[in-house]
Amino acid sequence: xxxxxxxxxxxxxxxxxxxxxxxxxxxxxxxxxxxxxxxxxxxxxxxxxxxxxxxxxxxxxxxxxxxxxxxxxxxxxxxxxxxxxxxxxxxxxxxxxxxxxxxxxxxxxxxxxxxxxxxxxxxxxxxxxxxxxxxxxxxxxxxxxx
Length: 146
Fold this sequence. Notes:
Distance between the termini: 75 Å
Strand order of the largest sheet: 3-2-1-4
Radius of gyration: 22 Å
Number of strands: 4
Helix content: 40-55%
Strand content: 15-25%
Number of helices: 4
Shape: globular
Largest sheet: 4 strands, antiparallel
């Protein structure tokens, strides 16, 4: 029969290992979310670059997507998208001409925003540069143009 002295350290080691495993798993959740957000951003930008409506629709279950050019204010974003926006200031869009902002309202109502550099592809040039551009997934068709 093991003595109390030999089982207690083993229990502590197991508890420490379990705690470390939980910590690693919890830390990996934001990393995974960050990777998914980055992948979604790339899919959407690629769809715009290729003017591919089908790819745009299939990138994620979204209901509304907005593209905003440099110096767009939160008031412009809020009015165009019908959401409360604090993205312009936090992203630097209101003060910078080197980025565009893409805002996606998912079917679930969750709102994602993506800061998109204007190089190598200038997202701000979509729609002939007439921004803001707000698309509703329910209004897109395969023959729609981007």
